[in-house]
# Entry
Amino acid sequence: MTTLSLMATRTWSRLPRRHVPVLATLVLLLVLYGVGVSQYRAFSNVQVVFNVFIDNGFLLVVAVGMTFVILTGGIDLSVGSVVAMTAMVSAFLLREGLPAALVLLTALLIGPTLGFLMGCVIHFFDIQPFIVTLAGMFLARGMCTFISGSSIPITDGFWTRMSQERIGDPSGNFVSISVLVAFVVVAVAAYTLAYTRLGRNVYAIGGNPQSALLMGLPVGRTRIAVYTISGLCAAIGGILLSFYTLSGAPLIAVGMELDVIAAVVIGGTVLTGGSGYVFGTVLGVLVLGVIQTLITFDGSLNSWWTKIVIGGLLFAFILLQRLIGIRYK
Amino acid sequence: MSNRKAGYRALTTHRLFWPVAVLVVMLAANTVYRPGFLSVQMRDGHLYGSLIDILRLSAPLILVALGMTLVIATGGIDLSVGSLCAISGAIACLHISRQPDQNDLGGVLTALALGLGVALVLGAWNGVLVAVIGIQPIIATLILMVAGRGLAQLITEGQILTINSGPYKAIGVGHLLTLPLAIFLALAAATVVAVVTRRTALGLMIESVGGNARASRLAGIRSGRITFLVYVISAACAAVAGFMMTANVSSADGNAAGLWVELDAILAVVIGGTSLAGGRFSLSGTILGALLIQTLTTTVYAMNISPQTSLLFKAVVVIAVCLIQAPGFRARFARRRAPAAAPAPVSEQPKEQVPA
# Structure
């Protein structure tokens, strides 16, 4: 306890306060991993880490999109449903016999289109993002069951190849293609937020939309852009999920938006916007993944403990953000 | 002529006009589709019919939405109500299932008190997070929304707890004076909330906290206490709704009980004309909104459409109602329609004033 607080004070003197939540998440991740390694011998296997990435690749991609939205102070509840809809649409189109490339393109277009429309409604009609994306969530989920009430298997050659392809070292550790895609998305997003005009605008709007408008920044365009980006990320996540499960199911990824929001918050992004990093979101997703792995390794704990632990962590991190005085409205 | 036009305008601009219109259209569509829709029959001393069904099934939603209305009126939001429904229902069912005689009224009342008590504690937790620690409501209640589902499953140990208790079942499907008991419970709750908020200064205080928490504190209202209170009220409403939901099916499922009811409740509140920004609320609008959502669900069932696809219709209705109520959308329409009537004299005036 004392060492922790000592460490905290030392980091405070050297680092800006907005870095503290990300560092806390990093410390938590290392502690969790350390606990796993000390308790279970098999935990130190590199493949365990790779598996966390393989199992959570799609979550990571979606969380990156959500980071953009939350950085502007908005929220996107539709992501889980969009993920399911993308997987569903691609499974359906593949069953109808369309070529894989065309299916991929169509599936990747639906998410951003829905995101764009939601962004337009939010911006032009000034309706709360919460309600608009809630309607988007219902719409996408309804579309899923409209397409088919039961799960559709995918037998397409491209999809199975993407699902089974293993990229690894000679000792047998491997990652799937989804993980590489997720890394590319993370890299592009991190670059966009840190080094492009769009990224600056996103932080500015999250900090204070009125000031951003008075500074002449394109508030409307940026706001619509972040929901489109979130839709695109959800679509990519949906494709990755369909690689992972090789099917489209109407009720898959129900409640995923909560995991995603939890990952973003645990990763240190402030929900009122303006402060946070893509790197933090990666750490947040990893924390969720490691907790799940720990509970799987333990065996005696039931799956609902995951929810309770995630709730507890959310509380701890929000309290931390509050204590170190990051602006909360 | 102009009188009638003014009356028409007053009618269409009334905040409850569009929800009522949509509700009437939906009922009419149902009657066209199934002519017997509006008929209500007397059977075994109870009234039966689609309308009665809609009322009975909308009772839990009305309850949750009432609490949600007050929370939203303070500018907050309570995402945890669905989990609270599951927790309170699970606790009540667990206690009853452990009784030697499940039909014992005393045991059922203890179970209800236990469930309500735990819900009040959790509501107080939400209230402390928002009012004392100052966490954004959407996040403060998100914690319990996520963890609460886990707690409910922990209570039922991941199983579906089935009980066989007459008194408890009555909360969901019992009858009183030929009508379902659930309707009376919802009505009673609505009346209590309405009297307490509209016949005392409490409603005004809630609205003033929602309008500007700081200003109302400076004006002498204990904003923190009001904010704390609404979360506790919301939790209590959710607990009673949770009893109804579990009593309806005589079993508690930690995973499914009250799933997405928070979203339905928020929709009901928004459709009823309460602004998500806080500062004013309409209880009658909320009840109307809850009825609208339940009618939509029943309509979809009656037309043999899969229940999941009903989400599609819900999305369309939500967007339509929100757009119609949105000032931005109305302004756009008004701008297109306006030149015919009003602006002509207005545009004259500034021109005359410029040279002077």
About this structure: The beta strands of chain B are 41-43, 46-48, 160-162, 175-176, 179-180, 251-253. Chain B touches chain A through 48 residues (CB under 8 Å).
